[in-house]
Design brief:
single chain, 13 helices, elongated, mainly alpha, about 0% strand, Low-affinity inorganic phosphate transporter
Length: about 325
């Protein structure tokens, strides 16, 4: 019993560490454009994002239930805690590596891939809910395409509406609007990304017999939301630089269009209880907006590197989780 409680303690620590890292890894995406256009000062943007992430995380649990039960049934796993430990270690390692390199990769992809890999190697392929896994992967792959398309349309419409206006006055107005959309995007990030650690902790509590269902306890909500908010307060300057300045020269009207698009796609997924990559949604929104502004201005070589990272994250995380499971257990 004591040994089981100790392992659960390790799982909770790792899950909250994942959320903390997610906070400075992925939230950087949500505030990058508002910082690059000087709509918000960096410190102000980070503090605002931390609060909005917290509130978003507290208010929703649908994505947590999807994470907790769509890839595997925790009640049927004899070694579920070991599976979760391997999952979290793999996802944390990949997140830290891509953060260090300044590449906006997906924490969602890392966690989903790692969980599938850990269940596969730890319990066998029969315990992986392949239909649920495929549904999640579909959402992860479709969301950036949707974000790109919406971003392109939104920016095209804004260009047409304000084509006869002074660029200076337009950008002055949209610099204020960016504050609102940056806050909204941080809120939606909390509604989706913080749920993933909640789902993993709930998964561990069910598989250990400490919970009977995938209903997320209040203390898990508060712990995950607080961890993400604290991580957000650290900031992710390398990723902010990549997202805010290196893809194309972002002006306030572009930042507004990208933030509005990203927030819409993420919150839509949250309402459908689907875990999507906030990184993918926001990056694709920026690419769509940049394409509508001027296709030739987008640095497609950098965009290509980001897209490659998107596609390799799930298989690498799965293999990493398998390796960690074999080494530790």
């Amino acid at each position: 019993m004591e040994n089981s409680l100790f392992i659960i303690g390790i799982v909770i620590f790792l899950a909250l560490a994942f959320d903390f890292i997610n906070g400075f890894h992925d939230t950087a995406n949500a505030i990058a454009t508002s910082i690059s256009t000087r709509a918000l000062k960096p410190r102000t943007a980070i503090i605002m994002a931390a609060f909005m992430n917290f509130f978003g995380a507290i208010l929703f649990t649908g994505v947590a239930k999807t994470i907790g039960g769509s890839i595997a049934d925790p009640a049927t796993l004899d070694n579920g805690l070991e599976v979760v430990i391997a999952t979290l270690l793999a996802a944390i390692i990949w997140n830290l590596l891509t953060w260090w390199l300044g590449i906006p990769s997906s924490s969602s992809h890392a966690l989903i891939g790692a969980l599938a890999g850990a269940v596969f190697i730890g319990a066998g392929s029969d315990h992986v809910k392949w239909s649920g896994f495929i549904d999640i992967v579909k959402a992860l792959l479709l969301s950036p395409l949707i974000a790109f398309a919406i971003g392109y349309v939104v920016m095209t419409v804004l260009k047409w509406i304000f084509k006869n206006k002074s660029p200076h006055s337009v950008n002055k107005g949209f610099r204020f609007m960016q504050i609102i959309t940056a806050a909204l995007q941080s809120f939606t990030h909390g509604t989706n990304d913080a749920q993933k650690a909640m789902g993993i902790i709930t998964f561990a509590l069910v598989t250990s017999g400490n919970l009977d269902s995938l209903e997320v306890p209040l203390w898990v909500k508060i712990a995950a939301a607080t961890s993400m908010a604290l991580g957000t307060s650290i900031g992710g300057w390398k990723i902010i630089k990549t997202m805010g300045t290196k893809i194309f020269k972002i002006e306030p009207i572009n930042g507004f269009a990208a933030d509005f698009t990203g927030a819409s796609v993420i919150f839509g997924a949250t309402m459908l209880h689907l875990p999507v990559s906030t990184t993918h949604a926001i990056t694709s929104a920026i690419l769509g907006v940049g394409s509508a502004k001027r296709f030739s201005e987008v640095k497609w070589s950098l965009a290509g590197r980001i897209v490659i990272t998107w596609f390799i994250t799930i298989p690498i995380s799965a293999l990493l989780a398998m390796l960690i499971f074999k080494i530790l257990f």
